[in-house]
Amino acid sequence: MTRPQLFLPIPLLASWCLAASTIALAQSDVALSAKARAIQDSAIVVDTHADTPQRFLDEGFDIGSTDPNDFGNISLDKTKRGNLGAEFFSIWVDPDLNQGHFARHTFDLIDSVYEQAARHPDRMMMAFSVADIERAHREHKLAALMGIEGGHSIENDMHLLRDYYRLGVRYMTLSWSNTNEWADSSGDIDDPKVQHHNGLTDFGKQVVLEMNRLGMMVDISHVADKTFWDAIATTKAPVIASHSSARVLVNVPRNMTDDMLRAVAKNGGVVQVNFFSGFDDENFRKAEAAQEKDQKAAVQAYLDQRRAEGKAVDYMEVDRIERQWLAKIPRPPLKSLIDQIDHIAKVAGIDHVGLGSDFDGVSGATPQGIDSAADLPKITQALLDRGYSAEDIKKILGENLLRVFRQVEQVSREIQASGAAGR
Length: 423
Ligand SMILES: [Zn+2]
What we know:
This protein has about 425 residues and is of the alpha/beta class. It contains 15 helices and nine strands. It has helices at about 35-40, 50-60, 75-80, 100-120, 130-140, 160-165, 200-215, 225-235, 260-265, 275-280, 280-310, 315-325, 335-345, 375-385, 390-415; strands spanning about 45-50, 85-90, 125, 140-150, 170-175, 215-220, 240, 270-275, 355. The radius of gyration is 20 Å and the shape is globular. The structure holds zinc ion. Zinc ion (ZN) binds near residues 1, 2, 222 and 243.
């Protein structure tokens, strides 16, 4: 989930939608070579961020849907066409709408992923390890993993963190766009009304170490810069950025500086590039900033109208308004996303870059031609066209993430073998 706190006055439940008019572009604008198809089909392709669970839970969306008019980025049909092997489904709890019951909503979202896997056992399986992802690949099923997006989900309780691990959560983003009680976020770091901690609190550092012990990947997407550096200094295992791009290309606090990219490389981790156009393309970001005031006013007008009528706010409607505004901005070329991958590969190294789409979380604001998981082979083609070798492309498509995940599992085993108990 990327967009809501960028400029909306209220949180959004539903910001996953693609403008229907863009669907016709799918698959039509990039010719796939046999070589690209072969690389795609032989790789274990891993994406580390999709917000589809909100669709499962709030909308009753079935991942088996073959509805040609569905605007979503993810379905079993689409993942099959793109040969996506593993998806980390995001467990994102809106901090404003779920005050007082973060954990309950976290459990509900986790349940929604399991329920989808139970409905489609022939095509999808829950996965909790690298070995599970490899097994799913052999069985031609989508491996469904889970990452919690935002440390507020643990309600400052280490027992809950362990419960989430036991339920299968394999990464946690230390903060979402909201600063929680132990980690500062990039989303509100300049807001003087928010109580900040200068990065991670002592408890926050304990959370990182407990994640290391459990074998849960530490995700530094969304966090404030100081939180990033505290996490890097604290962790005993490689970190991930599950859905982050480079700040030198698009200057938003949510993106990573080159120093951060190099620090992740030194740490042995991986940066999974976000597909959101507002993070990947400077022109898009500027256009979005330029419409911010009018867009806010349009949403506010709707909210005022509902209030005047004494009706509850329909967040699907808010999302529809937002999508209409975003659709006014020309979609950037695929080149903008490839430039991000290329930059991170150059600065951090080819072993430290991967894919973190943010599918179903960016209101359709993806580059031209990337309408769903079915379009992932176009990225492979574009990397080939830039001179990347098959071997390097497979690293980007998933091998780098698998290496980090394996290392996190190994560090966990070592810590537990040394007799360290939970905190
Ligand atoms: Zn996000």
